[in-house]
Structure formats: structure tokens, C-alpha cells
Design brief:
Blueprint (H helix, E strand, L loop, with lengths): L11 H35 L8 H43 L14 H15 L27 H60 L3 H62 L2 H27 L3 H8 L1
Helix pairs in contact: 1-2, 4-5
């Protein structure tokens, strides 16, 4: 796995790629500056041959020099635009190969803080020696992007998918535990509501018995209304608890199903990773080396038995 550095937040490979591109851009700027200096030197050598010039001649000279410099600057800007577009195109193609979608936020190109970070990074990289890395003046195109290594290919994608599925498995397990806790709380609330209902019924019976000694119609009506209100309220609470318990049970079932799906995907990804690893060149080479060593050991044992029949038995006894 690539190590992420604090500087620019890039891995070592990406940091090296940015540094290489900055060196390429610096070389191109130096070439353009030399071209512009050559334009001025050419004017000095070919046009400034007289001691005095008229105003019209000076204007014509400056206009001619301005056209040449403008063409050089425009060519440099156009070349820089095409170079950046080519680099983005190569990166996008590389991302599309793995079904990835990259987004280029052009608003960040005017971010002074980010540009200052790039400037400091280039200055820091410029302090190191990079002789021999300047591209040839005849080649004005960027070097091709390095192909994806084995650590950045299908194995890395499978590993990332396994990590994602593992994290999702952990999240689902936590949700499952949380759902079980909520179901337990709902069950506890239902039990408490049942106790409250039983207490209300006992209170109602007690009130009815008390009303037998005070048979006032108004008091009886008021108490009956109060008891009915309490009964309806408790019934509503019980229904709400039952509905919540049913919802928790459905969520628990859904979470269990999701957990089983994630486990199946995780097992499939692990099998795919093992299959990919067995197909790698390193694994095949190691297998060939082991077979070759086994053949050599068998041949040596055969020769040892031919020349010294008792030597192999002695070696086995020592072992």
C-alpha cells in the first residue's frame, strides 16, 4: 500500500509524478524564455545597426518585436494548455479503465492558498538535484503515464472492496445490536404499560367499590370519564409500543438479511483475491522454484545412493 505524506496529501508515487511534471514545466518555461531572449538579441544584432533612428522606425521596430514576442508567448500558453489537457485525458482514461469517475474542479485553480502550496512544493523540489531528468529539447510531449502496478491493480481494488465490506459488516453488526437493544426497551415499555393498565383496572374497581358508599351520579360520571380516559391513553400507549416492537422486529430481520449478504460478498471477494493472488507472477515463479529445488534434491539423493549407499541412512539418523 502507498504511504500518504502530509505534504500535499499525496502518496510517494503521486508526489513523484507531480514533481516530475513540475520539472518538465520548468524546463519548458526556460526554453521559452531563451526563445524570447533570442528574439531580443536578434533585434539587437540585425536591426540596431545605426546610431540614430526616427520615431517611425522605432515604432516599426517595437511593433515587429512585439509581434514576435506575442507569438512566442501565445505558443507557450497554447502548448501549456494542450499539455495539461493531454495529462487530464491520460488520467481520465486510466480511471475509466477501472470504472472510476474523476472530477476536475476548475474553481480550485484560482485558490491562492493551494497555489502557494504548489509553489512551496516546487521550490523545495528545486533544491534537490535533478540533473539528467530534463527531457530532450526535441521532445515536447509528456512521458507516458506509468502503468498500474500489481499493488494498484485488481488485487488492490479487491482489497479495498474487502475492507469496505468488512466495515459495512461491522456497521450492520452494530445496527443489529442497537436494534436488539431497542426491541428490549420496547418490550420493557410494553410490560410497564401492562402493569399500569392492571393498576388502572385495580384503581377502577376500588373506585367502583367506593362509589357504592357514595352513590352520587355526578361523581360517578366524572370518575367513569376519568377512568375511560386513562384506559384509552394506556391502550394507545400499548398499541404504540406494539407497533414499535413490530417495526424493530422488521428492522432486525432486514439487518440480518443485509448481514448475510455482506458476509456472502466478503467470502466471494476473499475467494476472488485468493484466485488473483494464485495467478500472479510471483506465486507462479515461487512454485516453479520449489519444484526445481525438489527435483534437484531428488537427483542429489539418487547420486548419493549410487556413490555412498549408507550415507543417506546416516544423515536421517542424525536428523
Amino acid at each position: 500500500m502507498s504511504v500518504i505524506h502530509g505534504e500535499l496529501g499525496l502518496s510517494e508515487e503521486h508526489r513523484a509524478a507531480v514533481s516530475s511534471y513540475l520539472r518538465f514545466s520548468k524546463y519548458q518555461r526556460a526554453q521559452r524564455l531563451r526563445s524570447i531572449e533570442a528574439c531580443f538579441q536578434d533585434v539587437k544584432d540585425t536591426r540596431l545597426v545605426d546610431d540614430t533612428y526616427t520615431l517611425e522606425e522605432v515604432r516599426e521596430l517595437l511593433d515587429s518585436l512585439g509581434d514576435v514576442v506575442k507569438a512566442e508567448v501565445e505558443g507557450e500558453l497554447l502548448h501549456a494548455s494542450h499539455t495539461n489537457s493531454l495529462l487530464l485525458t491520460r488520467l481520465f482514461k486510466q480511471a475509466q479503465k477501472w470504472h472510476l469517475t474523476l472530477d476536475a474542479d476548475t474553481s480550485d485553480l484560482e485558490n491562492k492558498e493551494l497555489l502557494e502550496e504548489i509553489k512551496k512544493f516546487e521550490e523545495k523540489e528545486g533544491d534537490h538535484s535533478w540533473a539528467g531528468t530534463i527531457p530532450s529539447p526535441r521532445k515536447r510531449t509528456l512521458a507516458p503515464l506509468a502503468p498500474l502496478t500489481e499493488t494498484e491493480g485488481p488485487l488492490a481494488l479487491l482489497q479495498a472492496e474487502i475492507q469496505r465490506l468488512t466495515q459495512e459488516n461491522i456497521d450492520l453488526s452494530q445496527r443489529l445490536q442497537s436494534a436488539k437493544g431497542q426491541v428490549s426497551e420496547v418490550s420493557k415499555g410494553k410490560t410497564e404499560a401492562s402493569l399500569n393498565l392492571q393498576q388502572a383496572k385495580d384503581e377502577l374497581n376500588r373506585i367502583k367499590n367506593g362509589l357504592a358508599n357514595r352513590p352520587t351520579s355526578e361523581d360517578v360520571t366524572e370518575l367513569c370519564n376519568e377512568v375511560e380516559r386513562m384506559r384509552l391513553q394506556l391502550s394507545a400507549e400499548i398499541e404504540n409500543h406494539e407497533a414499535a416492537q413490530d417495526q424493530m422486529a422488521r428492522d432486525l430481520t432486514t439487518s440480518k438479511q443485509g448481514l448475510q449478504q455482506v458476509k456472502a460478498q466478503l467470502q466471494l471477494a476473499e475467494k476472488e483475491l485468493e484466485k488473483k493472488f494464485s495467478q500472479t507472477g510471483a506465486f507462479q515463479n515461487m512454485k516453479k522454484m520449489l519444484n526445481k529445488k525438489n527435483d534437484q534434491i531428488k537427483a542429489l539423493r539418487k547420486r548419493l545412493r549410487e556413490f555412498e549407499p549408507n550415507a543417506e541412512e546416516a544423515m536421517l539418523e542424525e536428523v
